[in-house]
Amino acid sequence: MAEISVIIPAYNSASTIREAIESVWAQNFSGHEIIVVDDTSTDDTVRIAESVAANVDRRLTILGLDKNSGPAAARNRGMAVAEGKWIAFLDADDAWLSGKLAIQMEYVKQNPDITMVCGRTLPLGDESEKRRIGETELLLAEQRLGKGAMWQESICSSRLSLDDFVTGNPVATSTVLVRRDVVLSVGGFDEQFSGPEDYDLWMRIVAKYPVAKIDEPLSRYRLVKNSLSMDDRKFLPMVLKVLEKEFGQSGVFADRRNLYSSALSNQYWNASWMAFNRGSRLAAIRYWLISYLENINAEKKVERQWFPLLARYVCGTTITR
Fold first, then answer.
1. Contact (CB, 8 A) for 87 and 115
2. Spatial contact of 25 and 58, defined as CB atoms under 8 Å apart
3. Which of 6, 127, 223, 271 is least buried, going by the fewest C-beta atoms within 10 A?
4. Largest CA distance in the chain
5. How do residues 227-256 score in pLDDT, each as one tens digit?
6. Helix/strand/coil (H, E, C) string of 31-83?
7. pTM for the full model?
8. C-alpha span between 73 and 190 (Å, rounded)
């Protein structure tokens, strides 16, 4: 029986699914199975996954949903058949560093109270993108992870609390290793959300269980232009619903409504950045103004250089996070 079940939700991921799967097989930890859940792709995602599996004698299961249902449903479907005590999530357009699973399993072995551990990410893109971030950074990260248990003793990590989720999501899904029983105990992914479904789940987990974050890159994250998480028109309404749920009467922040304005301010700020980068300056300014007003309402003011940034918006200067 596999110790870790790796769940990869996939939708029209023909151009990236091979790299994702191969990054799992490249791990220096062998006790894992891979479950690819296809969300009714219309491209060659399934055929490519099958061809990759046929060439290597590894445990790989390919499941298909009956209708397009989003990543939350795909991950829940994968967990329903998973055999591992631990679940690791990997998006089909991301890839792991080769020491990810080994270092995380060593970490939870040394910290048995931890039920979920995540880490940092590095960008993943074309050759020009790789040159921009520097192959040296990636190589050094791979070398540190490759040192395994000996290096593990000096690893830097921190415990996450609910406060860390007020101003955003500090957890990258493709870096997560979590106990399967913990995810199931809080109800799994909420399938009404598409995009910030992970944000909602992590908040419900950290409200009840110890969660840690390793201060090392564990996966590589592909920034896809016009993706759901980069489109303010689709992502913002969903993330506002997540906040409405978790700040509601039965949510994890039910007794801390004073933090609601800070949370809203941050999400409108992010939406402003998204809108500006897709070329909609009016939407960017509108979101910025809402963020500013919510910031004023916040009990503890979040420091931002509002007016210089507004000037940069108006002048058309490129903004980076």
1. no
2. yes
3. 127
4. 59
5. 666 789 999 999 999 999 999 999 999 999
6. CEEEEEEECCCCCCHHHHHHHHHHCCCCCEEEEECCCCCCHHHHHHHHHHHCC
7. 0.86
8. 8
